[in-house]
Amino acid sequence: MDRRGPYAYTFMDRMTKHPPDQTLRELLSPSFLRHIPESENIAQELVAEFVEGHPEVHATDTEALARLIWLALATALDHLDDAQQFAARCRELGRSFVGLGLRPRHFPAMAQLLLRHLALEETEADAWKRFVLQIERAMVSGSKQTGPGPALS
Question: How far apart are CA 40 and CA 38, in angstroms?
Fold first, then answer.
């Protein structure tokens, strides 16, 4: 074991992969922009696969669900540097997804499908996993809140 303690390697490995001067937004933005031309197709394929694998979800409007997926990513990325705004917006989005038939138990499956449908380079995959997990957690929290959430277009 390293004399500096059991977590020294993990910390150094993380710092090597993601130097402190690179924010998560800086790591994700180029990849996000690269996916925009295909965003509609990616989201539609993801929704089709999700609905097929989750027949209990009667997605009445799969197009709205597909649009909301990409809106969730864009909104979360816009607010990534402000933890309070990020969490608030993702909770709102979670309530919006509930309005389309999703429940908290569906968010982990949706997150995994999203990561699989994005053509990620090895260098950006870890950043996307962290980002999607943050979104998922906040959306699950929002989806469990009662009362109507703000309408998102």
Answer: 6
Mean pLDDT by 10 residues, the chain (153 residues): 44 45 78 88 90 77 84 87 88 86 89 90 88 91 69 38
Distance between CA atoms of residues 24 and 128, nearest Å: 9
Q: Which domains does the chain have, with CATH numbers?
A: 24-143 (1.10.490.10)
Minimal CA–CA distance to 82: which of 24, 35, 14, 18?
24
Inter-helix orientation angle 39-53/62-78, to 10°: 120
pTM of the model: 0.74
**Do the Cβ atoms of 96 and 29 come closer than 8 Å?**
no
Backbone angles phi, psi at 79, to 5 degrees: -110, 15
In whole angstroms, give the CA distance from residue 14 to residue 59.
39
Tokens 């569906």 correspond to 106
Q: What is the CA radius of gyration of the chain?
A: 17
Q: Dihedral sign, CA of 51, 124, 96, 42?
A: negative
